[in-house]
C-alpha cells in the first residue's frame, strides 16, 4: 500500500510529460529510489511498445540507477539511446547521452564521457533546455577537472555557472559554484575557490537538499585540506558524510569515509586510524574502486611507516600499483616516496633510489603538469576575458547602433510628423485663403456690378424724372408711365443692392439684419405714404445667425412689405415687430389696411393673394427652414407672422 | 438766412448724371447754377472764375482724385459760408456718418426723384438737414462712444448732445418723420430741424476734435 502511494506520487511527478524529460538533476533518497526502480521495471516489462514514453521511462530509470547500479544504468541508457534515435526523439537523445556521459566519467573513460556529454549539450541547446545545458556543462567541467585539464574545465565551468545564475535555481547554482571552486582549486587559486564554495554554502538554506549540502561541504573540506586545516576539513567531511548517507550506498560513501579517515590521521596519528583504514581497503578492493584502494593502502602504509616498514612497504606497493595503473599521479607520487623511505629503512637502498627516482619523475610530471595547467588556464582565462571584453565591446557597439538607429527613426518620424503638420497647415491656410479670396472676389464683382448697373439704373430713373418734368402735367398716361418707369428702375436698383447684401449673409449678425430691415422699410414705405413703426428685440450678442435664416427672413419681409404697398387698402401705417423668443426668431408685419368688402375674417382676401405666388413663396421659405408662417386679414388689418428657428 | 435764388455748384464725375442734374436743377427758379465741375480739384481750380461764391454745393462722393468726403474740408476752407450736401449711390449709414462728421449738412441718394431732391436742397437752405434713420443710429452711437471716452487733455471737442437733441435723434432712429417728432415733443418743425443741424455741427466739431486729439496723442506717444 505504501509502495502504491509512493508510486502514485512519484508517477505523478516524474512521468508527467515534458517535465520527465528534465527529470531529476539530483539523486533521489534511497527509499524513493527503490520504489521508482521497482515500478519502472515493472512498467518497462509490461509495456514493450516502442514509443517515446518507453524512452522516457528507460531514461528515468537509467538516470536514477546511475549511482548505485551503474551497469544496469548503462544498459538502460543505451536502450533509450537506440530507441530515441529510431524515433528521432530529441529530448530522449539528450537524456540518454547525458546519462552515458555521466557513467563514462565515473568510470574515468573520459573520451567517451566527453563525446556523450558534448552530444547531450548539443541536444540540450537544440531543444532549448537551459537546465540540461547547465547540467551538461557541469558534467563536462567535471570530466575535464578529473582529467586534470583545468584550462579546458574553465570554459564549461563559467558557462554552466552563468546559465545556472540565469535560471534562478539555487540547487543548480550551488552545484555549479562548487564545481567552479574545484576548478580554481585545481589551478591553485585558493582564495577564489573558497569564494565560490562559500557562495554556494550561503545558498544552502534556500536549497535544503542533502546532496547539495554534501557537495558543498565536500568542496569546503577539500579546500581546507589543501590549506592544511585538518580540523575544519574533518568537520566539513563529517557533514558531507552525514548528508550522503541518505543517498549513497557503501560504494558512494567510500571516498568520503576515506577522506575522513585521512583527516583523523592528520589530527591524531595514523596508528589510531589503522582499523578503519583496513576496513576501507577491504571494501575498496571488493568494490573495485582503484582510487580508494590506493588511498586506503597508502594510509595503512603510513600507519606502519615507523613501526613496521615491511608492512608499510607492502601496502605502499599496493597503493603504487593501484595508483600508477590508473594514472592517479599524486597518490602514485606519495606511494613511491613512501616506498622509497620504507625501502631505505629496510636497507634496500637500490630499490629506495629507484623509488625515489620514480617519485621524482611523478613529481616532475605533476609539477610540470601543474605549471602547464596553470599556464594554459591562465591563457584560457585571458582569452576568455579578452573574448568577453570583445563581446562586451561589440555588444555596446550594437547597443549604440541600435540607440542611434532608434534616435534616427524617432527623429525621422518627428520630422515626418512635423512635415505632415506643416503640409496640413499650409493646405488648410491655402484653402482658407482661397475661400477668402473667392469671397472677396465675389464681393468685388458684386460691388462692381452694383456700381455699374446701379449707375445706369440711376440714369434711367433720372431721365424718367426729367421727362416727367418736361412732359405736360395734363398728359396723364404719359406721366403715369414715366412714374412707373422711374419706380421700376428704382426697384431694380434696390434688388441689386439686396443681391450685394445677400452675399454677406453668411456672416450676418442679428443687428445687421435689423439694420437692413429698417433701411429697406425706409426705402419702400415712405414713397407709398406709409409710416412705419419698428419694435425690435434687443439685438443680443453679435454672433452670426445661421446663414440661410437671415436671407430668408429678409426675403419674407420684403415680400410682406411689397404686399402692403401693393394691396393694402387705405393703409397708412405699418408696424414691424422682430423678436427672439424660445429659440425662434419671430417677425410680425401688421398694417392698418381695411379688409376687402364682403369677406369674412379668416378667409384669405382674394385681393390679397396678389397672384398667389407671393404668399406661397413666403410659406415655402418658412417651411424650408423648419418654421411657420401665418398670414391673414384681421379686424385691425392684415397681419403676417413668421416664426423661424434660430438656435 | 439767404434768399433764393441760391447759387448752386455741382461736383459729379459721371457725365450723364451731371448733365441731367444740371438740366433739372438749373432750370429751377430757386437755383442758379454757378459752377459745374468734374472733381474737387477741377472745382477748386475753377473757383476764382466764378462770379459769385456758391452757397450750396452738391457733391458726389465717388470722384476721381479726392473723394467728396475728403474734399469737404477744402471746400469749407475756401467757402466758409457754403453748405455742402453729399450726393451718392451708396446708402450706407457709415458713409453718411463720415460725411456728416466731415462737415456735410446733408446726404442725399442719387436714387431720389428729382422733385424730392429739390425739396431737400431747399430744406437745407432753410436750415434743415435731412437725416435718415440709419444715420441717426450712427449719430447716437457716436455720441455714446464719445461720452465713454475720457475728454482729451486739450479740452477740444467732447461736446455732448443735449437731452432734447438726443430725443430727436432717437425719434428719427425710430423712423418718425420730422412732423411726428415735432408733435411728440410739442415743438415746431423748424426747431426739430435746427436741433438736427446742431447735432450735425456737434458731430463735426467732435469728430474734428477727435482727429486732433488722436494726432496729438500720436505726436506725444
UniProtKB/TrEMBL annotation, chain A:
According to the UniProt entry, its GO molecular function terms are: phosphorelay sensor kinase activity; protein dimerization activity
SUPFAM superfamilies, per the entry: ATPase domain of HSP90 chaperone/DNA topoisomerase II/histidine kinase (SSF55874), TPR-like (SSF48452)
Gene3D superfamilies given for it?
1.20.5.1930, Histidine kinase-like ATPase, C-terminal domain, Tetratricopeptide repeat domain
Segments of this protein annotated with the region Disordered = 592-647
Major location (coarse): membrane
Q: Where are the transmembrane segments?
A: 409-430
InterPro entries linked to this entry:
HATPase_C_sf, HATPase_dom, His_kinase_dom, Sensor_HK_TwoCompSys, Sig_transdc_His_kin_sub3_dim/P, TPR-like_helical_dom_sf, TPR_MalT
Q: Which GO terms describe its cellular component?
A: plasma membrane
This chain belongs to the protein called Tetratricopeptide repeat-containing sensor histidine kinase
Key words of the record:
Cell membrane, Kinase, Membrane, Transferase, Transmembrane, Transmembrane helix, Two-component regulatory system
In this chain the Histidine kinase domain maps to 448-647
Localization, per the record, is: Cell membrane
Ranges annotated as biased composition (Low complexity): 595-608
Membrane topology (UniProt): Multi-pass membrane protein
The record, for SMART domains, names: HATPase_c
Its domain of life? Bacteria
UniProtKB/TrEMBL annotation, chain B:
Give the Gene Ontology MF terms in alphabetical order.
DNA binding
List the SUPFAM superfamilies hit by this protein, alphabetically. Answer: C-terminal effector domain of the bipartite response regulators, CheY-like
Tell me which UniProt keywords the record has, alphabetically. DNA-binding, Phosphoprotein
Specify the protein name. Answer: DNA-binding response regulator
Positions of modified residues (4-aspartylphosphate): 60
Output the Pfam families linked to this UniProt entry. GerE, Response_reg
In this chain the Response regulatory domain maps to: 7-125
Organism of this sequence: Hymenobacter rigui
* InterPro entries named among the record's database cross-references: CheY-like_superfamily, NreC/VraR/RcsB-like_REC, Sig_transdc_resp-reg_C-effctor, Sig_transdc_resp-reg_receiver, Tscrpt_reg_LuxR_C, WalR-like
- What's any GO biological process attached to this entry? regulation of DNA-templated transcription
PANTHER family from the xrefs?
TWO-COMPONENT RESPONSE REGULATOR
Identify the residues that the record assigns to the HTH luxR-type domain, covering every copy: 154-219
Amino acid at each position: 500500500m505504501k509502495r502504491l502511494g509512493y508510486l502514485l506520487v512519484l508517477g505523478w511527478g516524474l512521468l508527467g510529460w515534458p517535465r520527465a524529460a528534465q527529470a531529476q538533476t539530483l539523486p533521489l533518497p534511497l527509499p524513493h529510489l527503490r520504489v521508482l526502480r521497482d515500478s519502472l521495471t515493472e512498467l518497462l516489462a509490461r509495456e514493450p511498445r516502442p514509443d517515446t514514453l518507453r524512452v522516457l521511462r528507460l531514461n528515468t530509470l537509467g538516470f536514477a540507477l546511475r549511482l548505485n547500479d551503474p551497469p544496469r544504468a548503462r544498459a538502460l541508457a543505451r536502450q533509450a539511446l537506440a530507441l530515441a534515435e529510431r524515433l528521432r526523439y530529441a529530448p530522449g537523445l539528450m537524456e540518454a547521452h547525458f546519462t552515458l556521459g555521466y557513467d563514462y566519467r565515473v568510470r574515468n573513460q573520459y573520451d567517451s564521457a566527453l563525446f556523450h556529454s558534448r552530444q547531450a549539450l548539443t541536444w540540450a541547446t537544440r531543444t532549448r533546455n537551459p537546465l540540461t545545458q547547465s547540467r551538461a556543462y557541469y558534467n563536462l567541467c567535471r570530466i575535464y577537472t578529473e582529467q586534470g585539464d583545468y584550462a579546458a574545465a574553465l570554459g564549461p565551468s563559467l558557462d554552466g555557472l552563468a546559465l545556472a545564475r540565469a535560471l534562478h535555481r539555487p540547487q543548480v547554482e550551488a552545484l555549479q559554484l562548487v564545481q567552479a571552486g574545484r576548478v580554481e582549486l585545481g589551478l591553485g587559486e585558493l582564495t577564489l575557490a573558497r569564494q565560490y564554495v562559500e557562495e554556494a554554502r550561503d545558498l544552502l538554506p534556500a536549497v535544503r537538499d542533502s546532496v547539495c549540502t554534501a557537495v558543498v561541504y565536500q568542496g569546503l573540506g577539500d579546500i581546507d585540506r589543501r590549506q592544511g586545516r585538518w580540523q575544519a576539513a574533518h568537520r566539513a567531511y563529517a557533514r558531507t558524510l552525514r548528508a550522503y548517507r541518505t543517498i549513497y550506498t557503501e560504494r558512494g560513501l567510500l571516498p568520503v569515509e576515506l577522506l575522513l579517515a585521512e583527516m583523523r590521521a592528520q589530527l591524531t596519528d595514523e596508528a589510531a586510524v589503522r582499523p578503519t583504514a583496513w576496513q576501507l581497503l577491504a571494501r575498496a578492493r571488493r568494490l573495485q574502486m582503484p582510487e580508494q584502494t590506493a588511498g586506503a593502502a597508502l594510509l595503512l602504509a603510513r600507519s606502519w611507516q615507523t613501526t613496521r616498514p615491511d608492512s608499510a612497504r607492502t601496502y605502499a606497493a599496493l597503493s603504487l600499483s593501484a595508483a600508477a595503473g590508473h594514472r592517479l599521479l599524486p597518490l602514485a607520487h606519495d606511494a613511491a616516496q613512501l616506498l622509497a623511505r620504507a625501502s631505505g629503512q629496510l636497507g634496500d637502498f637500490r630499490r629506495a633510489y629507484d623509488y625515489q627516482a620514480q617519485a621524482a619523475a611523478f613529481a616532475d610530471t605533476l609539477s610540470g603538469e601543474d605549471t602547464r595547467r596553470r599556464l594554459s588556464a591562465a591563457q584560457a582565462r585571458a582569452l576568455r576575458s579578452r573574448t568577453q571584453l570583445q563581446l562586451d565591446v561589440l555588444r555596446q557597439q550594437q547597443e549604440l547602433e541600435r540607440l542611434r538607429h532608434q534616435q534616427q527613426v524617432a527623429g525621422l518620424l518627428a520630422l515626418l510628423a512635423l512635415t505632415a503638420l506643416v503640409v496640413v497647415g499650409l493646405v488648410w491656410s491655402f484653402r482658407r485663403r482661397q475661400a477668402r479670396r473667392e469671397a472677396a472676389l465675389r464681393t468685388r464683382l458684386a460691388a462692381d456690378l452694383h456700381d455699374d448697373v446701379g449707375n445706369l439704373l440711376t440714369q434711367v430713373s433720372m431721365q424718367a424724372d426729367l421727362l416727367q418734368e418736361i412732359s405736360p402735367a395734363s398728359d396723364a398716361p404719359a406721366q403715369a408711365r414715366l412714374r412707373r418707369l422711374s419706380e421700376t428702375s428704382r426697384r431694380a436698383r434696390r434688388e441689386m443692392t439686396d443681391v450685394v447684401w445677400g452675399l454677406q449673409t453668411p456672416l450676418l449678425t442679428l443687428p445687421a439684419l435689423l439694420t437692413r430691415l429698417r433701411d429697406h422699410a425706409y426705402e419702400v414705405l415712405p414713397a407709398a405714404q406709409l409710416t412705419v413703426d419698428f419694435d425690435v428685440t434687443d439685438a443680443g450678442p453679435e454672433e452670426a445667425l445661421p446663414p440661410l435664416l437671415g436671407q430668408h427672413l429678409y426675403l419674407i419681409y420684403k415680400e410682406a412689405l411689397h404686399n402692403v404697398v401693393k394691396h393694402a387698402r387705405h393703409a397708412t401705417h405699418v408696424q414691424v415687430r422682430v423678436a427672439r423668443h424660445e429659440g425662434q426668431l419671430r417677425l410680425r408685419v401688421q398694417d392698418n389696411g381695411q379688409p376687402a368688402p364682403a369677406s369674412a375674417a379668416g378667409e384669405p382676401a382674394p385681393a390679397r393673394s396678389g397672384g398667389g405666388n407671393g404668399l406661397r413663396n413666403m410659406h415655402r421659405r418658412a417651411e424650408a427652414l423648419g418654421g411657420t408662417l401665418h398670414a391673414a386679414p384681421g379686424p385691425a388689418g392684415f397681419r403676417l407672422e413668421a416664426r423661424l428657428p434660430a438656435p | 438766412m439767404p434768399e433764393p435764388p441760391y447759387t448752386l455748384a455741382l461736383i459729379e464725375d459721371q457725365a450723364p448724371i451731371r448733365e441731367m442734374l444740371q438740366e433739372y436743377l438749373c432750370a429751377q427758379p430757386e437755383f442758379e447754377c454757378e459752377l459745374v465741375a468734374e472733381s474737387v480739384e477741377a472745382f477748386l481750380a475753377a473757383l476764382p472764375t466764378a462770379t459769385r461764391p456758391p452757397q450750396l454745393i452738391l457733391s458726389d462722393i465717388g470722384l476721381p482724385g479726392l473723394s467728396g468726403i475728403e474734399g469737404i474740408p477744402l471746400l469749407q476752407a475756401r467757402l466758409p459760408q457754403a453748405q455742402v450736401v453729399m450726393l451718392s449711390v451708396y446708402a450706407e449709414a457709415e458713409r453718411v456718418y463720415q460725411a456728416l462728421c466731415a462737415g456735410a449738412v446733408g446726404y442725399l441718394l442719387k436714387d431720389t426723384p428729382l422733385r424730392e431732391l429739390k425739396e431737400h436742397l431747399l430744406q437745407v437752405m432753410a436750415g434743415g438737414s435731412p437725416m435718415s434713420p440709419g444715420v441717426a443710429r450712427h449719430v447716437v452711437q457716436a455720441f455714446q462712444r464719445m461720452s465713454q471716452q475720457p475728454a482729451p487733455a486739450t479740452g477740444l471737442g467732447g461736446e455732448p448732445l443735449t437731452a432734447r437733441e438726443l430725443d430727436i435723434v432717437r425719434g428719427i432712429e425710430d423712423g418718425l418723420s420730422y412732423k411726428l417728432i415735432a408733435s411728440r415733443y410739442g415743438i415746431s418743425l423748424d426747431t426739430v430741424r435746427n436741433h438736427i443741424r446742431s447735432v450735425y455741427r456737434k458731430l463735426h466739431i467732435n469728430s474734428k476734435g477727435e482727429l486732433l486729439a488722436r494726432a496729438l496723442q500720436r505726436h506725444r506717444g
